[in-house]
Design a protein that fits this description.
This protein is an alpha/beta fold. Helix content is about 50%, strand content about 15%. It is built from 20 helices and 13 strands.
Amino acid sequence: MKLTMLGGGGFRVPLVYQALLSDRGEGRITSVTLYDTDRTRLDAITAVLKQQADRTDDSSSAPVVTATTDLDEALRGTDFVFSAIRVGGLEGRTVDERVALDLGVLGQETVGAGGIAYGLRTLPVATAVARRVAAVAPEAWVINFTNPAGMVTEAMLPYLGDRVIGICDSPSGLGRRAALALGLDASQTFYDYAGLNHLGWLRGLQSGGVDHLPKLLADSESLGDFEEGRLFGASWLRSLGAIPNEYLHYYYFARETLAAVQSVEKTRGKFLLDQQSDFYAETTRRPGDALELWQKTRAERESTYMVESREVADAGERDERDMSAGGYEQVALSLMRAIAHNERASLILNVRNRGTLRHLDDDAVVEVPCTVDANGARPLTVSQLTDHQAGLVSAVKAVERSTIEAAATGSRSTALRAFAWHPLIDSVNTATKLLDGYAERLPDLAAYRSRIG
């Protein structure tokens, strides 16, 4: 079976390949094609993958890796497409952050103003990719990890239908950490989780016919034993009666997080840009050390993840258990195996709502537990959102859809509406300045300065 990885020169590709190396079952992925527009990046990541394969017990059985800058060539004959593209690169992300911060609002990659700007330049490329997949590999399944993941998945649906499924490691990681804090078997626990990508809540931990979440919320020691418990604090979690996805820290502690981000010399995007530029340059000079260079860079990247939010919460450094295996690469592998071999699996995914959450229409992409088999992913029954949760989800879904419409039509007024409607942007005037600021500094968005309607 063939897997095509769009954004194949990206830094996180080796995580997926490592998961494939551990899969020795029948019908496994035997061929991996990396696609990227940057040959230097492709060469660096190809070197990392080769060294990963060479260190296995049987390198001859490792998936064969090829690399190309031709999209159609990458797609031909593929069974699965893993999409993790970054339109505008990390240079674009630094602009997303800086324009927002200079106007006094958060500019995180997928949340608020930064997420909208990222979506506006990413969606035209993502939908173009979807059209090529439909034309060149219509039987392929697309696993979307391109951010903003829920928004991008919804934009691809008209071209790919239910053959596009969005993934994220945050919900499953939250559920696993919460289960382990109580000593539960995470593999045998059902996570009652619902919302949108980077905007969801864990509302139940069901194991042995019992919901263990109330016990966890009552136990301050157990809550302090994992990332989200420390991040949000026991008192607030008890008030909510749920455990939020870590990205909700940007909503619940917006003022404090903004101050923390504004106080640092480098934004997260600038840090990653400098770090990964050094990695690719050093790998070009020392290709024989590609794997070690990648491992060192990844360790630094993971340890500094959401560092400002942890400082606000006085949560300390990330625990090794919070960074352990089970990330998006394992979600992707489990999803592919379930579809390819009709091996029923339960995973939290980004799929069409289909009546699961009554506050949203059937075609809205939501992030909920799903059953997966050869027919794809189908959402499972979960408890309904509270008024608070539904209100926030509905508001952000309206922002997502305005962003999708603006990207498709080039309408300035629709793009402005997306910025103005976001809960983290407090003024239409600020929204106007954001749109103009991004249009001035990002070539992809320049047209929004002059278009009307």
